[in-house]
């Protein structure tokens, strides 16, 4: 890093404060999850894993984890297919109108999810999708599209259009070019988008509160109910598991990027 | 690489307009079987647009592209079966050298065994057999260029199109690969169409050069012919260096003419001299101007003083201010230089009557 300015004490302090501000609220659940008390609190006399045991032995918690997982997987597939096709389409046609479509695709990120949820609630009633696995998958899948559109568009911006010309010049059809040249080049972008779409569905609460009630009971929903009804430290244990899982996904994303960029 | 002979390419009145701008205007050309043709011109002359139209990536606004007399203008690029080496090569970065070369074969559904055999032959052709498993980014620029050539030739294309194939390389490597490319052309016996702005490359590689300017074909012919008998001021100036001498024709006869400035010109057999009284423009190559010794005679003599000079190793380049003809550039081989050049030194320049060639002023 020779030749760059060194940070002053003020800048350094501000950077650390920001980092702590981001991380501390997340870290506080770790000691809470390990509490030896029977209510949401910091440990008093010692650490205990009893709340993790409770969660992993409870059919309700495990059921919700499984349900959240399957919904997230299905929603991710939906987001990835729709988002990738949209990004490739916009990139190939590349007109003013496609810019508009790309912005339109980002709407789910811009509009407050509670507004979105109210809209879904009105339509899903008529379509008999309320409290259905499919309903939540569609809601999460559609709102996950922006993540995929963003990451795939970024990957495509770095794609050399001459590679497509070269493939065509050598006789490749559109399908062959897509499968052998374009998709392998943008695969890291697709994977990143998939991971973000998965996380989006995995911890989404607001829409689920509106469009699901009994049959579909996702993990964030159970945490929410748990906090409203009783202050069971099992929630903190679940939160820790959630954090670990998400962290694992982000690390996978990083590792993937490093492998495709370097090497 | 089979021993199939090359195919003939024809352009008929090819025109490409982008809105108000005309990139290529009414270009007609014939490229013979197995010929190496270079489209030469400055940037913006339309040479790349012509190549892209031949490849099928640019749809002409008017005119036709013919392959062995058959109109292929409406065919998309993937149906034309032309090999192409792109500027910057456009190798697939996620595929190894062997996979890159196998790509056009895979597209055509060849079996793995056939593919492997052809890839090996292509790698041998460009002397890269030991690099099959490398990725493009692990190769030098020259090696990447050879992979691009192998990939463009492996599927027995009807034509090989080259878009500034050597421009990304440094000077020494460029000279080496020029020779390789020439040898490769002789070996495979196919029709090559090359695009470049580098006149040296065009002169050394091509059987024939087509010179373009502002989207129009200015002159075409064998490199030697274009160099020795440029038709216009642009051609004389772009292909090599040239002095330009202007004057009014005072005497005209069958074999030559003379200008009012005293310059005499001998014409090749059959060339008609310009009428007396007309304006004439002459191109005179600097290497055809000699430095005369005391008392030495020549068809044309101009006296002057050295304005500036530079030493180029193999030779000297002089700028001489003459009394009658203005500034004249001369390049002399070092071993022949009778003097040590110095600014202000009086010199006598001389050249034969065949040296100067009448050229046309460029159309505006």
Characterization of this structure:
The complex is a heterodimer of chains A (263) and B (364). Chain A is 77% helix and 0% strand. By secondary structure, chain A is mostly helical. The model of chain A has no long low-confidence stretch (mean pLDDT 88). Chain B has two domains: 9-231, Rossmann fold (3-Layer(aba) Sandwich); 241-359, Nucleic acid-binding proteins (OB fold (Dihydrolipoamide Acetyltransferase, E2P), Beta Barrel), CATH 2.40.50.140. Chain B contains eight helices and 20 strands. Chain B has helices at 47-55, 97-107, 112-125, 141-153, 171-188, 199-205, 223-228, 233-238; strands at 9-18, 21-31, 36-40, 62-67, 70-71, 82-85, 159-163, 191-196, 208-213, 216-221, 243-253, 256-259, 264-266, 279-284, 290-291, 300-311, 315-322, 326-333, 346-351, 357-359. Chain B has a six-stranded mixed beta sheet, sandwiched between helices. In chain B, helix 3 packs across helix 4. The A-B interface holds A 160, 162-163, 165-173, 176, 180-181, 184-185 and B 55-57, 76-84, 86-88, 90, 92-94, 103-104, 106-108, 151-152, 155.
């Amino acid at each position: 890093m020779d030749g760059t300015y060194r940070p002053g004490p003020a800048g350094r302090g501000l950077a650390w404060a920001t980092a702590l501000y981001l991380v501390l609220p997340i870290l506080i659940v770790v000691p809470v999850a390990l509490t030896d008390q029977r209510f949401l609190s910091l440990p008093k006399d010692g650490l205990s894993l009893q709340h993790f045991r409770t969660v992993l032995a409870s059919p309700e918690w495990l059921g919700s984890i499984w349900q959240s997982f399957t919904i997230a997987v299905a929603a991710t597939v939906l987001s990835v297919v729709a988002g990738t096709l949209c990004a490739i389409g916009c990139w190939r046609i590349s007109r003013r109108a496609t810019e508009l479509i790309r912005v339109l695709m980002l709407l789910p990120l811009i509009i407050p999810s509670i507004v979105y949820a109210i809209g879904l609630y009105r339509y899903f009633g008529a379509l008999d999708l309320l409290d259905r696995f499919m309903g939540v998958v569609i809601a999460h899948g559609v709102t996950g599209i922006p993540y995929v559109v963003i990451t795939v568009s970024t990957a495509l911006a770095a794609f050399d259009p001459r590679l497509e010309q070269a493939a065509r010049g050598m006789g490749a059809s559109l399908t062959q070019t897509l499968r052998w040249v374009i998709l392998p080049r943008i695969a890291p972008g697709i994977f990143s988008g998939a991971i973000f779409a998965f996380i989006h569905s995995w911890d989404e609460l607001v829409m689920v509160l509106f469009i699901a009630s009994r049959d579909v009971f996702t993990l964030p929903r159970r945490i929410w109910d748990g906090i409203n009804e009783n202050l069971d430290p099992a929630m903190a244990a679940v939160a820790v598991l959630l954090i670990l899982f998400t962290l694992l996904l982000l690390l996978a994303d990083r590792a993937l990027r490093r492998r495709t960029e370097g090497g | 690489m089979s021993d199939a002979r090359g195919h003939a390419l024809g352009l008929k009145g090819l025109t490409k307009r982008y809105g108000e701008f005309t990139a290529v205007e009414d270009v007609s050309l014939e490229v013979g079987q197995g010929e190496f043709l270079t489209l030469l011109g400055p940037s913006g002359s339309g040479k790349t647009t012509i190549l892209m139209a031949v490849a099928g990536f640019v749809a002409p606004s008017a005119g036709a592209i013919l392959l062995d007399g058959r109109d292929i203008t409406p065919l998309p690029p993937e149906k034309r079966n032309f090999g192409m080496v792109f500027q910057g090569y456009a190798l697939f970065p996620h595929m190894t050298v062997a996979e890159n070369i196998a790509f056009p074969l895979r597209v055509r559904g060849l079996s793995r065994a056939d593919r492997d055999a052809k890839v090996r032959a292509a790698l041998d052709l460009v002397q890269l057999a030991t690099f099959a498993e490398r990725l493009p980014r692990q190769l030098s620029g020259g090696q990447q260029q050879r992979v691009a050539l192998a990939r463009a030739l492996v599927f027995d294309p009807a034509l090989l199109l080259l878009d500034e194939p050597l421009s990304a390389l440094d000077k020494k490597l460029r000279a080496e690969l020029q020779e390789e490319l020439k040898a490769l052309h002789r070996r495979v016996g196919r029709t090559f169409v090359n695009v470049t702005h580098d006149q040296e490359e065009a002169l050394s590689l091509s059987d024939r050069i087509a010179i373009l300017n502002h989207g129009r074909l200015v002159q075409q012919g064998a490199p030697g012919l274009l160099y020795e008998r440029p038709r216009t001021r642009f051609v004389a100036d772009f292909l090599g260096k040239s002095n330009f001498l202007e004057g009014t024709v005072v005497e005209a006869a069958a074999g030559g003419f003379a200008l009012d400035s005293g310059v005499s010109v001998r014409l090749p057999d059959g060339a008609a001299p310009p009428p007396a009284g007309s304006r004439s423009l002459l191109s005179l190559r600097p290497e055809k101007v000699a430095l005369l010794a005391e008392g030495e005679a020549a068809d044309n003599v101009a006296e002057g003083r050295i304005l500036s000079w530079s030493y180029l190793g193999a030779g000297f380049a002089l700028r001489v201010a003459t009394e009658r003809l203005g500034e004249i550039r001369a390049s002399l081989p070092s071993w022949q230089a009778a003097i040590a050049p110095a600014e202000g030194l009086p010199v006598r320049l001389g050249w034969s009557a065949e040296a100067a060639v009448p050229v046309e002023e460029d159309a505006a």
